[in-house]
């Protein structure tokens, strides 16, 4: 393998643009090739140089990358191939891509052992999934298929849930001969059984597995049946992920259900999710275990359910455990709410009702374009409003206007006030705020805001 | 708002037990043993890195030395915590005894908890001087021995390739040959990282052993190129 490596300082040329660059230090080697720092006109990039045996086995690879370069990225979150790389006098091929900013961490750090483990709050996890759903929606909408959705390809900014997706070498037109089966545990059961090759439909299965991992740090098919396997050999893998896949929270089949004392943390997290998200997981891992459009959950379904869940998250005041407002045990009233982790009563927080949607107004909660501008759904970015405590009285909370426009507000008694940029309006029951493009009403929490 | 979130008390990930079985017979003395110690020291960081790339797997390392008799050199230790203590060479080549001792560990009792197929890397420069057959038979009869991914590294021209090939027991997977210090470092590095990485690398259709065989370092230089 050593012979295929590039020496630091080796000059290279970009095939389409003709630009010249220089190979920098090795970043790391993987199954398909090695990644190097690279410089073009002093600007930093990453060069992925393929192993010769990969190019030999995957003859469609150069054409695939060339088409990806020509087509351009379907979404800025993909670290898309910029151009093909050739080194004069050498066999082989690589491609150039942008350098991943250092603030991103591997998504697999969500399940790493401490101290490498990252543990973002539930709202960030939900946003991460939402962002993934959006990215893959744009990719699939262009008629493309990713083929190998897995943990290794995704990077996350742990405080915001911002993502970037690497390893785009296998992306191809949906239906084209696949170059890879996928990554273990992320492959759809029909691929594990050897009946099908990856396509946009199996991407949806892999994406659902990834979402379950992001929220639970666990695999959706690893309940009792997996727990009872002492040595996970190829036959057992085939059974659990291929021929007899069963969801650990299948409401109709408890044979692979959680094991008390072992899966408790997974059960708590599951019970704390919103009903909408739980319903999609059940679909994805019951009907969706079979190929075909009936079961596989599409990105737009995920997007809506995840956005709603992200807006409904509140923490138990006793232990800090986070829940969605309509977690499994929430009383539909909904005036009573028991923490799934410690059992303490969780007081209902104030909410902002925006048409059919409700946003929990816990301290620190933020509103974005998604909430305040119907023309920009699922756009987060810079916050447009934030829930803050009164500087002199922490028990009083208000909503700060972070936009450049003045809001108007009206109390149930008909009195009202303008809320100029930078100012904060106190949250009281029945308060109506006109944000310009959208109007919302505040519903008081269980301990009413004064 | 960062709050305590998913805690995983009680949850454990599957273990990947990695057994290194090293020939410490007299013929290994001198440069060979020094090179091997160096190669293993150098392989540890790469192995830790490969393990870190597979956070769902806890990699445990054990080292078994054999010369006149066989003994554990490193008891089960998480890969992050392994510290390499140099091996010394002297005595016979009791490979059969080593495989018997290994067989005793390749059981549900010897490897408690949820497991992935263990990986055994056998490193030798010579011919067994005890009853290799008995050891191999015990290994293959042990509950996890047959299911283990077995890799062999032959050091120098005198290594018994036939014996190592039978230890591997796979038609497409030959012993890796190391004819000089540099190739030994590369072989050791590959053997200690590739099986760990293979847990999470994309699947291209072949069985795990076939994949490893395809990926294994290319054919070595001729035996007379050996320089120690």
TrEMBL record, chain B:
VWFA domain residues: 17-196
InterPro entries: VWF_A, vWFA_dom_sf
Domain of life (superkingdom): Bacteria
CDD domains: vWFA
Signal peptide region: none
SUPFAM superfamilies, per database record: vWA-like
Annotated SMART domains: VWA (SM00327)
Protein name: VWA domain-containing protein
């Amino acid at each position: 393998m050593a012979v295929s490596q590039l020496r630091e300082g080796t000059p290279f040329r970009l095939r389409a643009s003709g630009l010249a660059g220089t190979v920098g230090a090795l970043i790391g080697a993987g199954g398909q090739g090695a990644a190097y720092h690279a410089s073009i006109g002093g600007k930093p990039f990453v060069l992925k140089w393929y192993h010769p045996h990969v190019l030999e086995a995957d003859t469609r690879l150069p054409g695939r990358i060339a088409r990806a370069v020509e087509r351009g990225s379907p979404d800025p979150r993909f670290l898309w191939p910029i151009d093909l790389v050739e080194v004069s006098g050498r066999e082989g091929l690589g491609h150039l891509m942008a350098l991943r900013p250092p603030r991103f961490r591997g998504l697999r750090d969500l399940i790493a052992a401490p101290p490498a483990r990252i543990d973002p709050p539930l709202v960030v996890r939900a946003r991460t999934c939402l962002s993934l759903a959006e990215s893959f929606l744009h990719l699939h909408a262009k008629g493309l298929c990713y083929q190998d959705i897995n943990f290794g390809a995704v990077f996350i900014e742990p405080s915001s849930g911002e993502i970037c997706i690497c390893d785009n070498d296998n992306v191809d037109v949906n239906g084209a001969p696949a170059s890879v089966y996928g990554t273990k545990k992320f492959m759809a059961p029909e691929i594990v059984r050897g009946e099908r090759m990856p396509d946009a439909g199996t991407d949806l299965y892999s994406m659902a597995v990834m979402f379950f991992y992001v929220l639970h740090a666990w695999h959706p098919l690893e309940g009792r049946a997996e727990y009872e396997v002492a040595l996970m050999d190829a036959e057992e893998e085939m059974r659990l992920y291929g021929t007899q896949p069963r969801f650990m929270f299948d409401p109709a089949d408890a044979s692979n259900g959680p094991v008390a004392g072992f899966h408790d943390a997974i059960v708590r997290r599951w019970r704390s999710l919103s009903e909408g998200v739980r319903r999609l997981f059940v679909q994805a891992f019951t009907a969706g275990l079979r190929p075909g459009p009936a079961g596989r959950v599409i990105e737009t379904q995920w997007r809506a359910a995840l956005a709603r869940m992200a807006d409904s998250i509140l923490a138990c005041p006793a232990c800090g455990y986070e829940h969605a407002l309509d977690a499994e045990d929430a009383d539909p009233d909904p005036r009573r709410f028991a923490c799934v982790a410690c059992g303490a009563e969780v007081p209902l927080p104030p909410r902002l009702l925006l048409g059919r949607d409700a946003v929990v107004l816990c301290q620190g909660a933020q509103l974005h374009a998604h909430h305040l501008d119907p023309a920009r759904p699922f756009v987060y970015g810079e916050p447009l409003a934030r829930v803050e405590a009164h500087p002199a009285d922490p028990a009083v909370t208000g909503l700060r206007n972070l936009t450049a426009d003045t809001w108007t507000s009206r109390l149930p008694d008909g009195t009202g006030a303008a809320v100029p940029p930078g100012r904060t309006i106190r949250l009281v029951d029945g308060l109506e705020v006109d944000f310009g493009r959208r109007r919302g009403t505040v519903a008081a929490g269980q301990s009413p805001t004064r | 708002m960062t709050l305590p979130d998913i805690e995983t008390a009680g949850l454990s990930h599957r273990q990947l037990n990695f057994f290194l079985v090293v020939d410490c017979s007299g013929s290994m003395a001198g440069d060979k043993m020094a090179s091997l110690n160096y190669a293993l020291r150098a392989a540890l960081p790469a192995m830790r890195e490969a393990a870190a790339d597979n956070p769902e797997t806890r990699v445990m390392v054990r080292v078994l030395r054999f010369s006149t008799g066989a003994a554990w050199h490193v008891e089960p230790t998480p890969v992050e915590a392994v510290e390499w203590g140099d091996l010394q060479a002297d005595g016979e080549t009791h490979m059969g005894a080593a495989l018997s001792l290994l067989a005793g560990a390749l059981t549900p009792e010897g490897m408690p908890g949820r497991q992935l197929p263990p990986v055994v890397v056998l490193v030798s420069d010579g011919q067994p001087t005890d009853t290799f057959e008995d050891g191999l038979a015990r290994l293959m009869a042990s509950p996890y021995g047959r299911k283990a991914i077995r890799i062999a590294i032959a050091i120098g021209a005198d290594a018994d390739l036939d014996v190592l090939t039978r230890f591997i027991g796979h038609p497409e997977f030959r012993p890796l040959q190391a004819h000089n210090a540099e190739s030994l470092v590369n072989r050791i590095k590959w053997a200690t990282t590739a099986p760990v990485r293979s847990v999470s690398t994309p699947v291209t259709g072949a069985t795990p052993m076939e994949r490893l065989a395809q990926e294994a370092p290319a054919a070595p230089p001729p035996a007379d190129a050996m320089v120690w």
